Amino acid sequence: MLNLFSLRGLPWTGADGQQKVQLTAAELESLRSELADIEEREAHMKARLEHIDGILRSARLSGYLYIRTRWTALPGEPAPIDDTKINDWLPRFIVLHGQCIFFYLRSTDLSPQDSTLLSDVVEVGSLPSFTREDEGTRYSFYILTRQGLRYECSHVSQIQVDTWLSALQTGCKVVSESDVLVPNGSSKK
């Protein structure tokens, strides 16, 4: 059984073909302390997984998207600079849960890095797809809040982007540009 453990630095002695470990009281206490720490970390990780599992089971939609945030220009401010050459897209784990959108750094995080209420979303729409070096084409959309914060989101899958757009437009009850009716009753396309 002791051969299963690779406890480096511990004195092994063999007598009559039996291998034994000789530990001092301090070494034994140190090992007990390490085991207690490992058990505590294991319990913490199990709690995290149960928490995450509960959120994901009740979420309407979740997954990784590349995100960047922008503030809309206030009246009288100069137009924002052209930042299309800047690669500031960061992968984030997004969860659409209840009446809120949660932005996590990683899918295993216990608390979100940011969040916004669906009632604060005033506009959701498509953005043009773009291509980055060695990354392929990314399809994108945006979420605009009443505070002027604009979340630009992208993914390599057009289906993922369409799924997020549909879920957000339904959940936020916002009108997209393609759904606006012109006076003669036809749809503006």
TrEMBL record:
PH domain location: 58-173
InterPro entries: PH-like_dom_sf, PH_domain
Gene3D superfamilies linked to this entry: Pleckstrin-homology domain (PH domain)/Phosphotyrosine-binding domain (PTB)
Keywords: Coiled coil
Signal peptide from the UniProt entry: none
Coiled coil location: 21-48
Name the record gives this protein: PH domain-containing protein
The species this protein was found in: Gossypium raimondii (Peruvian cotton)
